[in-house]
Amino acid sequence: MHPLDNVIWQALTTRDAQFAESFDEARRFVREVGPLGAFCEQSLRGYASLAGLVGSGGTVGLFLDAPYEERAGWSFLVGAPLLQMIADNGAAPFARLDPHTELIELGPHDSAEMIELTALTKPGPFGTRTHELGIYLGIRKEGKLVAMSGERLKVPGHTEVSAVCTHPEHTGKGYAGILMTEVMKRIRDRGETPFLHVRQDNVRAIEIYRRLGFRERKLGHFAVLRKV
User: Fold this and answer.
1) Contact at 8 Å (CB) between 120 and 168?
2) Structure confidence at residue 30 (pLDDT)
3) How many CB atoms lie within 10 A of CB 216?
4) What is the b/e burial string over 196-210, where b = at least 16 CB atoms within 10 angstroms of the residue's CB?
């Protein structure tokens, strides 16, 4: 199996295992990190394991290879086709940083602002401990966090670029490309390959990612389920 196939499971059983809760053949991130989970195989045992993990009324976000099909005991809340993209051509992207703009490393003291920005822009789920998954970089203007990007899923040889977002009042300034370029550089400096996930209908973001050297690797499907 390629490290990016069933990527949430592989992350939670390898480089992100310290953030995992498990039950039989299912794992998920601790709630403060995020809602993503996975099973070893999409089977009766896989879903039974997931049910034991989340409990009645619990929710979980899955990356599936095919659209979710209705299953007894589960309620489908939301989902979308999801592209997995990888920057494996060795070309280093370049985005020019304006001399009046500074990249800053974000940490626990920035968590509340990171959650506020991601809640506004919705790049994907972001919890109070998501920043612990890897490096997060941001841009501040007049003291306010206006753009950020960082790392999420980690599997052998690969790290996901995630939480790419810019406040609506500061779009069009190239901040996403600048931040992603630096995050990708740091990933590559460790000898790893950057990858990411994006909704298939987010055409604008996909075009930016292509310019930064990403190519489409596979089409999957995101599904948020509730155990009933």
Assistant:
1) yes
2) 98
3) 14
4) bbbeeeeeebbebbe
